Amino acid sequence: MTKKQRNQQLIARAEKLCLHRGVRMTPARREVFNLLSEHDGAIGAYDLLDKLKKEVPNAKPPTIYRALDFLQAQGFVHKISSSNSYVLCSHFEKQHPVQMLICRSCGNVQEIHSDGVHEQFVSQAQAQGFLVEQQTVEALGLCESCQKGNQLSH
Ligand SMILES: [Zn+2]
Ligand SMILES: [Zn+2]
Which residues bind Zn(2+) (predicted)? Predict the structure, then answer.
């Protein structure tokens, strides 16, 4: 399956969910979703705006932020707080704890789901009397290909 086909399937799944939830995937939201799906790794709001302007010349920052808020609320997009950027989620049908592996060299972001980590985290939070509503763990480091690249240059 090509990347384009994969992205089309992803959008189709997102639109189906929106229909089911009774929320609207407006053209602007759809376009931002599409841009995120075409981008590898995480991307900042202003870089997204630059891309959006190619399709929608009068797009303004609020256009992007409103679309991102919506996509985040629907679980289609995860926000990476440490770099203030956004990444598309490919398994948004259900709420899930997120662990992000963020490459500090190429910016690639991989999402992993370790149930063990989540359970430990929640049970320790409970021991503090804290109710976890949302949990994102961000790990900064080097991805596999950047590690290889580093070895070659040494
Ligand atoms: Zn996700
Ligand atoms: Zn990398």
Answer: 103, 106, 143, 146
Residue span of the structural domain in which 135 resides: 98-153
Per-residue pLDDT tens digits for 96-128: 888 999 999 988 899 988 878 888 888 999 999
Q: How far is the CA of 17 from the centre of ligand 1 (A)?
A: 15
CA of 111 relative to ligand 1 center, distance in Å: 7
Q: What ligand is nearest to the CA atom of residue 102?
A: 2
User: Does the annotation place 106 within a ligand binding site?
Assistant: yes
Q: Is 18 annotated as a binding residue?
A: no
Alpha helices, DSSP H only, in the chain? Answer: 3-21, 27-38, 45-55, 61-73, 115-127, 144-153
pLDDT value at residue 154: 47
Query: Where among 40, 69, 88 does a domain terminate?
Result: 88
> pLDDT tens-digit profile of 28-56?
999 999 999 998 889 999 999 999 999 88
Q: How much distance in Å is there from the Cα of 4 to the middle of ligand 2?
A: 23
81 with 144, same domain?
Answer: no
Q: Are the C-beta atoms of 41 and 64 separated by less than 8 Å?
A: no
The total of other beta-carbon atoms located within 10 Å of residue 100's CB is 21
